[in-house]
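Per your request, structure below.
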């Protein structure tokens, strides 16, 4: 069966949807799916609960919409890895892009982390489908460069996992990092220099 066309929203309707998703992002990133309520989301959005439920049928519906949008955004830098580019520049560019996303979108990163820690009940099909396909494509590009002697040989998927871990950590564990570094540090600027040096030394053939 073909997908039904999505209704065209008025400017006010789109604004209200955006307010709800913005409010929900704050609530979910702080409380997780189980701890969040529609009442909390309504308060964060500055709307009534019935108004929220007019646009989204349930808390689950809001959560799925946020996660799907987030995953598309999170995967975009990987999709942009250019097989025709300079291998080391492409990998370092991906590292910088992922770190910048952690800097700019910490709530989104924590929302995704909450979902994964709960066993990804709302993302199971996506993780095994589109995510795996995009990772497979990027891994094949990395493996090709390694086979050509243009990058140090290693497991390309675990290389990708390491980039995720070392960049998203700065969003997901922000409080811990700031406590350890203390005042006077820009964690992201320092991390960018450190990670670029780390991956350059690791990957230069």
């Amino acid at each position: 069966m073909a997908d039904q066309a999505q209704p065209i929203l008025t400017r006010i309707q789109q604004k209200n949807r955006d307010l709800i998703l913005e409010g929900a992002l704050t609530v979910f990133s702080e409380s997780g799916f189980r701890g969040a309520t529609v009442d909390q989301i309504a308060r964060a959005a500055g709307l009534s609960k019935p108004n929220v439920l007019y646009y989204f049928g349930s808390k689950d519906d809001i959560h799925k919409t946020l996660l799907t949008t987030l995953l598309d955004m999170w995967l975009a830098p990987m999709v942009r890895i250019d097989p025709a580019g300079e291998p080391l520049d492409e990998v370092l560019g991906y590292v910088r892009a992922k770190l910048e996303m952690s800097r700019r979108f910490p709530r989104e990163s924590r929302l995704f982390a909450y979902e994964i820690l709960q066993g990804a009940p709302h993302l199971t099909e996506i993780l095994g489908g589109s995510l795996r396909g995009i990772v497979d494509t990027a891994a094949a590009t990395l493996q090709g460069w390694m086979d050509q002697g243009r990058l140090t040989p290693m497991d390309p998927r675990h290389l990708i996992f390491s980039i995720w871990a070392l960049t998203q950590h700065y969003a997901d564990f922000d409080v811990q990092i700031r406590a350890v570094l203390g005042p006077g540090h820009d964690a992201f600027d320092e991390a960018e220099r450190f990670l670029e040096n780390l991956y350059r030394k690791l990957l230069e053939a």
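The domain at 58-203 is CATH 1.10.357.10 (Tetracycline Repressor; domain 2).

Regards,
D.
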